[in-house]
Amino acid sequence: MASNTGVRTELYRDQFGILLEDLSNRMLELKWLDGSSAMTDEDFKAWLDRFSTEAEARRQPHLVIDVRQFRHRPGARGRSVAR
Asked: What angle do CA 6, 16, 77 make, to 5 degrees?
């Protein structure tokens, strides 16, 4: 369910991220959340597919992916990763 957050509209949200549209700045934004640490590679691919589908449909000229809280480690789930 979409909700309006000021000038930005929240199009989708789950534990991994938020998809926002900012009409005044003509921008579509994917904002990753700390919960992205628990995502699988398939979850990651699904999010990128969702973002690209919305980008094509909404035709905003500015696309932003905010990675400041991105915690996913591709290929890391299910195997030991040295730290």
From this structure: 165
Give the chain's length: 83
% of the chain beyond a pLDDT of 90: 70
Give the sheet arrangement for strand 62-66, strand by strand. Answer: 3-5, 8-13, 17-22, 27-32, 62-66
Return the higher-pLDDT residue of 80 and 55.
Answer: 55
Token pair, residue 28, equals: 């579509």
Q: Is the model's pLDDT at 76 over the cut of 80?
A: no
Query: 34: number of CA atoms within 13 Å, CB side?
Result: 0
Name the residue ranges covered by the structural domains of the chain. Answer: 3-66
What DSSP string runs through the chain? --EEETTEEEEEE-SSEEEEEETTTTEEEEEE-GGGGG--HHHHHHHHHHHHHHHHHH--SEEEEE-TT----TT-TTS----
